[in-house]
Amino acid sequence: MKILRTIGVDDLEDIAIGGAVLGTGGGGDPYVGKLMAQQAIRKHGPVKLIDVGELPDDALVVPVCMMGAPSVMTEKLPQGDELMNAFTALEKVMGRKIDAVLCGEAGGVNSTTPFVVAAAAGLPLVDGDGMGRAFPELQMVTFTLAGVSATPMVLCDDKGNSIVLDTVSNAWTERLARAATIEMGGSALLAFYPMSGKVAKQVVVRGTLSLCAEVGETLRRTRAAHGDPVAALADLLGAQTLFHGRIIDIERRTIGGFARGKATFYGVEEYKGQTMQLEFQNEFLIAQRDGEVLATTPDLISVVEADSGDPVTADSLKYGQRLAALAWPCNPLWRTPEGIELVGPRYFKYDYDYKPLPTP
Q1: Which of 25, 275, 310, 324 is deepest in the core (most CB within 10 A)?
Q2: Where are the strands (E) in 75-152, listed by range?
Q3: What is the pTM of this model?
Q4: Minimal CA–CA distance to 95: which of 152, 45, 172?
């Protein structure tokens, strides 16, 4: 099996930063996931990253991730064993060994948590995920678009509890898993969407972990060369700058296992005199400037510090921060009618049609 690259402790710095950019404000705190992954790699050794095309058709591939409100994930840190508990419990349910690990979403904490399992289990990690970004609900993956079932699925918490779900649809999986996650204290660790190598080759958004690493490296190198990190990031991603300003108001609350809210920015420099509002449900979903819709889900909207280019999650937005908002096109699978129905603005109860960003 050909290995794309071997991921060690130091590589996770760039991957965590890149994952937070692709996480579009959600996916949990990348710092938490990075520390968990680094600890696992120090203990068990580096992780082999492979292209999904290297998988045998009969391989069993399983994504892993954290679920819950990002604010809770930060306050109630995992012990480190919960992901492996979910992973090994799913092996018992499936009645066979799992052959490779996959990211559920390439965002925030969930871009790095799969490294924990891959290192501990000594398995390869597929360079890809099910979103190409982060979304707030677990049925919002390309796997669903292809008819892959989210179950059997195992949820574990920090107390040692575990639940096995077998549901009639992925929407029901989200509904029941969300209720269980709330009862588990607002966050849980899970293994789900078991699939064959043959299916994975058809449904995985490819190359997202490599892109995470490239994003982090680009920001690091640009800062070292005293360049413009925001411009370098926009150039790499084919993104447009939506706004540059300071936060003048922030509304945020945790409801139903999600961090929901709205941030208002007042413009600086060429945007002086204008305001922008960002609506979020874990992830940034709608960007408006002076009442005009600029970008909507499923296209990616990310917020970064104006000077450093470092990503800022929806959970860490604070009054007075000077930030830049970027947006770029999503994976083409999300622009299909089925994709828009699953993750478009109207699914989230916004009275807008999807406004696709131009593809570079």
Answers
A1: 25
A2: 100-103, 125-126, 128-129
A3: 0.93
A4: 152
